[in-house]
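Duplicate of #3305? Posting structure anyway:
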């Protein structure tokens, strides 16, 4: 929401919100005060000709989260607003009542240090699917190799890691797709003495 807290109207208000990495803007999802408006990726750009004193405008849009690489757990969204009457940029604060788990850190964004907001934070949203606890249900030496079975969960990838000393593990298989309720993996190499673990990740 863009709010005019001043005593006079703001004209030629421009709101810019770049589409975060690993996401895409959903077609026809951008609305201003409930009305669909046109905006093209890679950023949402909305023009508000007049924003009266004390009034606000609600900008909404939907993003589709893709498949971030391993290690990327969050997407960050940062919006700014400019207007004709003053040559400065205001950076949006996060929505503490929404889905953003972050708390205000009391620090102004470098782009609008010293402005009235006094505190700016981008909206940070988790994109990972939590990996719930799961157990290895069996570990069997078969004529075809070492077979591992474990409890499986949708939307989680798995990798098999091996170690000879419980200190340093190396991956022996990655990107194993889930097959709930149980995954089965067989190492074609002959069985040997090793420590095996299964790691779930998104």
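Output from current build:
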């Amino acid at each position: 929401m863009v709010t005019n807290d001043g005593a006079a109207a703001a004209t030629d208000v421009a709101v810019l919100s770049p589409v975060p990495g690993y996401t895409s803007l959903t077609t026809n999802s951008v609305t201003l005060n409930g009305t669909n408006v046109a905006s093209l990726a890679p950023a949402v750009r909305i023009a508000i000709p007049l924003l009266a004193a004390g009034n606000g405008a609600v900008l909404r849009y939907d993003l589709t989260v893709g498949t971030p690489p391993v290690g990327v757990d969050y997407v960050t969204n940062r919006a700014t607003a400019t207007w004709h009457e003053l040559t400065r940029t205001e950076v949006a604060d996060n929505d503490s009542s929404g889905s953003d788990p972050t708390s205000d850190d009391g620090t102004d964004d470098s782009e609008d240090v010293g402005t009235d907001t006094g505190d700016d934070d981008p909206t940070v949203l988790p994109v990972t699917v939590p990996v719930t606890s799961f157990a290895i249900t069996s570990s069997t030496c078969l004529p075809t190799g070492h077979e591992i079975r474990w409890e499986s969960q949708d939307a989680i990838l798995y990798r098999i890691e091996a170690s000879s000393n419980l200190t340093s593990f190396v991956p022996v298989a990655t990107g194993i797709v889930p097959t709930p309720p149980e995954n089965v993996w067989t190492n074609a190499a002959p069985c040997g003495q090793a420590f095996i673990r299964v790691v779930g990740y998104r």
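Confirmed duplicate; merging threads. The mean pLDDT is 81. The longest strand covers residues 10-18.
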